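Next comes a concrete protein, fold included:
___
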Amino acid sequence: MERLRHHNLAAWKYSDEFFFEVHRLVVERFPRSDRYELGSQLRRAALSVPANIVEGLARRTVAEQSQFLRTAWSSLLEADYYLSIALRLGYLDEAEHRAADQMTRRAAAALAGLMKSVRNQQASPSR
């Protein structure tokens, strides 16, 4: 099977890695009582990031692509907030939170670049 377009993008790769790290943290570090509350919200927000990148890239218009990428951005910020809550509740230690924060920032930087690239396509007169 041919690799799909999103497989080559840093934004998708980093956000995919971010989701799997978040999932691992929830399963290993969250108390059972909160895996289905905060943990579920965190996992859904983290999963939404790469999923919306994929869906956005499947859209034909730049406007639709941009909308899905903005949703991915919002989900990344939401997940970041949930990670800060997990730290404050003591589910994550400082080192785990710092590592997750670095993954968040790496995904955010790549996603910001992708969003800019899509916006530039819209501004390009050849499109």
In short: The two ends are 29 Å apart (CA to CA).
